[in-house]
Task: structure prediction
Amino acid sequence: MNKRGFASDNNSGIDSLIFQAIERVNDGHVPGYGGDRYTQEAIACFRTLFGEKADVYFVFNGTGANVLAINTLTHSFHSVICPATAHIAVDECGAPEKIAGCKLIAVETTDGKLTPELVKSRLHGFGFEHHSQPKILSISQVSEMGTLYSIDEIKALSDLAHKHSMYLHMDGARIANAAVALNVPFAAFTVDAGVDVLSFGGTKNGMLMGEAVVFFDKRLSENAPYFRKQSAQLYSKMRFVAAQFLAYLSHDYWKDNALHANRMAAMLAQKVSALGITLTQKVEANAVFAVLDDKIRDRLLEKYFFYPWNEEKHEVRWMTSFDTQEEDILDFCHELEKLLNE
Result:
């Protein structure tokens, strides 16, 4: 059996109930490319969560979701303002810029979160043909630093965006972890808070594959079907993505899995803090950021896979998942304690 580590919730396995959901629809022939009843039922689940105006597009992965959202709402002369740590800026190999053609403006933050104060200085050049035109504010919920936006913080950003005829995009790769941490429905911190388009993730929380792009106004998504096809994100056997979302959303698998992952992160944070390890960010979801001596880090990496985050600050990132077990944390902390005491 492969050892469970703390590198990424992408490294986790697949919830057995998701496998069962896929198997249940693996019977006979149905129309491809989303013309099947399972896809329509899954879309109906999203509309139950977000309202009847929600327009939903299933894609393969998170990068595809972000690219489709940005591409649909921009022209090549537009710009997207995001935190410097944002997935679209750091981990997508320039895909939003290549495919959408727009410019990313990365803003340095201390906690991975945009604020109106940080954004305002970038809001200039409107109507001036020599400058790229700001069109989207993009935030991640949960942020890449494991921190959460409150509902009021999201509303403040959406108000600022809309004041300047811009859109607010949310990268919700870990949206389930955010929902259980905030203890509110998905809609409360998305459509009700002024978000225009959402990348809704499931892969990091027990699904096999597949994400969803949710536009909260169908007038914004007129060209989404064509951009999805052009960006190679239209899955022919769509029922196998839809079946996962049907099970994931209608049976609250998302909630149970995310609650568990968040609890494991809280436990890990408590255990390493007790060993004298300094945390660098609030532990609000399923990520723990900490300062670790390089020699101890390298020794620990021999047995457990995780990512050094900021070499200059000796910062590391530990992620927990829906399948992280208490024994994984206890064994990890036991090994860390041994190294600290050598």
In short: The two ends are 29 Å apart (CA to CA). The mean pLDDT is 97. Residues 253-274 form the longest helix (22 residues). The longest strand covers residues 133-140.
